[in-house]
Amino acid sequence: MSTSQSPAGDTAAPAGAGRTGETLLEVTDLRKHFPVTAGLLRRQVATVKAVDGVSFSVRKGETLGLVGESGCGKTTTGRMIMKLLDSTSGKITFEGHDITKYSPGRMRPLRRDIQMIFQDPYSSLNPRKTVGAIVGAPFRLQNIQTENGIKKAVQELLELVGLNPEHYNRYPHEFSGGQRQRIGIARTLALKPKLIVADEPVSALDVSVQAQVVNLLEDLQDELDLTYVVIAHDLSVVRHISDRVAVMYLGKLVEIADRDDLYERPMHPYTNALLSAVPIPDPAEREGRERIRLQGDVPSPLDPPPACRFHTRCWKAQDICKQVEPPLVELSPGHMTACHFPENTTVSETDVVAKAAVSPEVD
Amino acid sequence: MSDAKRPAETLNGGPAEVNAGTAPSSSFLELRDLKIHFPTDDGLVKSVDGLSFKLERGKTLGIVGESGSGKSVTSLGILGLHNRRNAKVSGEIWLDGTELVSASEEQVRRLRGRNMAMIFQDPLSAMHPFYTVGAQIIEAYRVHNDVSKAVARKHAIDMLGRVGIPKPDKRVDDYPHQFSGGMRQRAMIAMALSCDPELLIADEPTTALDVTVQAQILDLIRDLQQEFNSAIIMITHDLGVTAELSDDVLVMYGGRCIERGTANEVFHEPEHPYTWGLLGSMPRLDRHRSERLQPIPGSPPSLINLPQGCAFNPRCPYSDQTGGLSTSERPELRETAAGHLVACHLHADKRRQIFADEIRPKL
Q1: What is the ipTM for the molecules in this complex?
Q2: Which phi and psi angles does B265 have, rounded to 5°?
Q3: Which of A353, A216, A186, A343 has its CA nearest to residue A274?
Q4: Which of B212, B213, B302 should we substitute to test contact with A (largest number of A Cβ atoms within 10 Å)?
Q5: What digits encode the pLDDT tens for the residues A289-348?
Q6: Which superfamily, per CATH, for A23-113+193-305?
Q7: pTM of the model
Q8: B212, B268, B296 ranked by CB distance to A277: nearest
C-alpha cells in the first residue's frame, strides 16, 4: 500500500499497492448504474451496470492506461473521476480528500487540479470562439489573475504545445485535426493541473500526427510533472505511453499491472485475447503468430453474465467461473488479475486465487 | 529481398507503360494514370493525380495513406460513384477487359454489385435504417439476378450465415439498428458478397470496430477471398491491418503513389522517406520501444496547392540532399528493384544507406 493517506484500509485493496510514489488519486469500489426506464410512469425496468466495482490508484507523475473494448465502462470511469458523472457508489479520493460527494460548488476550486483532454478535436472546441478565447476561458472562469494579462498567458500556452502564438485570433476551423488537439491540450494545461484524464486523446488523428501528439504529451509530463489517466482502445498507443495498464471488461477491472509485465506476461485470458487480436505491422509475422479468436460480441451490460463476466467467451471457463466471481488478486508484485485460471503463472499462484475465491472476507 | 510471395504479373508495371495507349489490359484490374479532380470555388482539388497499378484475382492490394491522400476517392472512382458533373475523371480503369472511365453509366451500373462491390467504413450510414437487413441484401441480389423473392431471401439467409451471423433465418428480418457494430459490418460484407464479386474494395472496413471484432472480420475477409478467389483492394490507415492482409502495398501521398511493392518490401525495405515516417510514427505492440516516436513534422498538404516539386518536400528531412530537385521537379515513380517502385529524388544507394544507418535502428 502506498505511504500516503490511505482511506481505503477496510475495503478492497486498490490495485498497484506496495509501490513507491505518492498516491494522487485513489478509486475504491466505484460503481455507476444507469437506470433504464419505460412506460408512461418512467418506471425503472432494468439497470445498465456500466461500471461495477472498480478500484485502482494513480501515483504522482505516472501514466495509467485504461483499456478495453467499447462499452466496457472506461469512459464512464474517466467521467466519474472528473465528476462529470456522479457515481452510484464507491469512493474517489484525490490528494487525500474524499471528493465523491462534493457539490459542484465545492468541486469548482478543485477543477484546476483535475482536467480532461477530449477525444474529438472537432466537437470539443466552440467554433464561434477564437483560439484566444477558448484557451483563455479557464482563467476567466476561475478568476485567476495572470502576471501579464490573459493574452500573454495564452500565447505562452500556445507556444508550449507547439502552436504559433500569433494564431491567437484564429478560429478552430482554420486548424488541422492535430493542431486542434493541441489547442485542446493548451486549454487543459492553462490552470496547471495535477491530474489529466485523457479520453482517447489521439484516436481521431492520422498516424504521423498522432505520434506528434503522443510525444507532446510525454514532453509535457516531464516538464510540468503531470499525472495522466489515459483512456484508449489502441493497445499499441497505451503500451507506448503508460507506466501501468488496467484492462476493463464489462464494467470490471480484470487485470492491472506494470506496462511491460502486462504486455509480456498477460495473465487474464481476456488480456491475452485482446493482445493477440491486434494486427502486427510486420508481414513476416502473420504466418507464425498464435492467435486467440474470441467468438461473438461483448454481452450486454444490461444483463451481464453471472460470476466471471468473461466466462461466456473464455476458452478456459469451467463450472467455477459460472458460479464464483474471481476476485482481483495480486499474483506477482504489482500484477493483479481477476481470474480462476490465469495464464503465464505458476501453480502456487493459481492456488492463491482458489483460496481467495473461497474465503468469504475477500468479497 | 524476399520475393517468395511476389505475384508474377501484378507489379511489373513501371511508369513506361502507363502511357501505353488504349490497348486492353491483360490484368484483371488495371488503373492507368487515373486522375480525379474536383473543381471548387477555391481552385482545382487534385484528389487523385496520376495513379497506376495492376491487380490480379486472388490477390490483395493494400492502399495506405493519411486522410486526404486520395485513397477513398480512388476506390469510389473505380466503382464509378463520382458524380461526373462535379468530378473530372480521366485516365483508364480496366476491369476484366472493360474500360470503365469511358463506359456509360448504365454499363458501370451493371458491373457494380455484380463484378465489383464495396465494403464501406461505417455500416450504420451505409445501410438504410428503414429497411430490414434482409430486404437490402435481397434487393442487391435481385438487381443482378433474375430470381424470385423467395430464392433471393434464401440466398440472403445463406450469405448471413456464411459471414457468421447467428440464427440468420431470424436475423434476416432485423433492422440495422438491431445489430451490433460487428454484426452490421458482417451484414455489409454479406451484402457486398451476395453476387460473388470478382473485385472487392474494402474502405477502412474495421476502423470503427473493437480489436477482437476487427480480428474476426479480417479472418472472414481472408477466408472469403480464398473461397471466391476475389481480388481485394484494402484501404486503411492502419499499417497493422495492411501487413496482416496485403500481398502488395501502395503508399499514397498528396493524391499520388509514392511507393509500391510487396508487403515485405514496403515494411522491411521501405525506400521513401514518407514510408519511413509512417513506420516511425507508429507505436508498436509487439516490442517495447524505449525511444520516442519519430513523427513526421508538419501536416498533410492541401490538395489545392500541392508543394512545388515533390509534394512531401516540406516535411522531408532529406529534401536538402537532392541538389534542389525536391523543390523544383516532381519525382517520377521509378523501379528501384524488380517490382518495387519509389518516387523520390534521393539516389537509390543513398536511400538504402540512410535507411540502414538512421531509420532501421529506430523502428
Answers
A1: 0.82
A2: -65, -45
A3: A343
A4: B212
A5: 778 888 777 888 888 898 999 999 999 899 999 999 999 999 889 999 999 999 888 655
A6: P-loop containing nucleotide triphosphate hydrolases (3.40.50.300)
A7: 0.85
A8: B212
